[in-house]
Amino acid sequence: MRSLTVHLRILIALCMIIGVSVTAYQIYVLGIPVTAEETDNLWNIDAKVEFRANSREPVKLQMFVPPLNQDYVSLNESFISNNYGVSVNRSDDNRRVTWSARRASGKQTLYYRLVMTKRYSGEQAKAKGPIYRETLPIEGAEKIAAEALLAPIRQHSADVETFISEAIKRVNNTADDNVRLLLGGDNSSERKADVIDVLLSIAHVPMQRLHTIRLQADIAQSPELWLRSFNGEKWLYFNPQSGEQGLPNDRMIWWLGDEPLLNIEGGNQASVTFTLNNSEMNAIRLAQLSNENTDASFLDYSLYGLPLQTQQTYQVMIMIPLGVMVILILRNLGGLQTLGTFTPVLIALAFRETQLGFGIILFTIITTLGLSLRSYLEHLKLQMLPRLSVVLTFVVVLIAVISLFSHKLGLERGLSVALFPMVILTMTIERLSITWEERGGNHAFKVAIGTLFAASLAHYLMSISELAYFIFTFPGVLLIMVAFMLAMGRYRGYRLTELFRFKAFLKD
What we know:
Elements: H1 2-29, E1 39-53, E2 59-65, E3 73-80, E4 85-91, E5 94-101, E6 106-117, H2 140-155, H3 160-171, H4 177-183, H5 189-202, E7 208-214, E8 224-230, E9 235-238, E10 251-256, E11 262-265, E12 267-282, H6 283-293, H7 308-317, H8 320-332, H9 342-354, H10 356-379, H11 384-408, H12 422-439, H13 441-462, H14 465-473, H15 477-488, H16 496-501, H17 503-507
Antiparallel strand pairs: 1-6, 1-12, 2-5, 2-11, 3-6, 4-5, 7-8, 7-10, 8-9
Helix pairs in contact: 1-15, 2-3, 2-4, 3-5, 8-9, 8-13, 8-15, 9-10, 9-13, 10-11, 10-12, 11-12, 12-13
């Protein structure tokens, strides 16, 4: 007996641990939303390209577009143009779209549109990058000025990260004569990045330019220059103007390198205007879209991977264990008397079609009339199978009559009674009749009321959309229910009704 107890405890603990672990993994690692009402940001980015084409010349315009290996998921990418060929090529870590046309003249407008989210980006690949570089050629006064700047930079730095930060700080100090010489009167971000690049190259520290877009709606903006360097484990990001370290969460890398955003042949006066706006979308639908547009498959092996029609069936079926657990608590802890365990749950499922109030009325009418018929057939001394067949046929006829009268009276809810499980009603009538004969009318009435109460409570809980979503999305909860049911299997204590029943003994 003791070995069985240990076995049961291990089984309960195992079900609980697996259920909690699977659910926590889905919530905290995969980022699946806990509620159906949860929403996530959806970003729409439009890049409007305008230029003037040279008449009677082929046009070829190239523009960098965001790489797809960042911490966001592209849900839709489109290239909008009229009479232009479109191709997308990869070059190192960049992607570049090419619009081409044999003939074009006058003002031309092209669009690039990206719809993305930053939540379901999946696991990022391990960062890789250079950790050494050759020195850029520099001579004369510029070399002396660079070396003069490097001396204090080395003195005030301890590693690559602090070295780069100190270099940016020194270059932004335009009061320094050495800095002014290297800048040559140009204080733009691009020129400062060139000077920083020279200083870092002398120390053999690699550096890469990147151009970012701020994820902020309804503001006019242009790509902002940032710098990054690989320290052997991860990329370090720096703002060349302010020295700010770490790429903010609202920045998206558009392209890497020194090349300009646009490159045009057969045209001139090319410009790009960026427009951003964000909207909200149901988080679980967004997860499904993300799953369709990436290699991630965290929903493929969930119930959301089933066909929609099958999903609708399982959304009902997966709530049955919840109804069973309600009946278990009412019977084992509350002491409520019902017609078995599963009959109230099946009646609760039937209430999904008829709604609770109308279903209780129909259940009462059909059961009362069925009990009367069953009592009459009992006087005829019929065997059980013919008696059940007659009661079943009577239930079908009665349901048809109720549906017909409901339709004539304009009560369309009554039509759904046709979906009421007739076999369940028939067996309910038979079991209530047997209970009446064996235990009396009062006990049969109590059992019928208890069954209706349990079915109504189970129906209420099974109809809560938040619970239905949570159990369907996180089926690991079912294992937690199993652990609770196993624990209830050894309960031998008093039930709630017994505490009132034996109240006098407790006083003694």
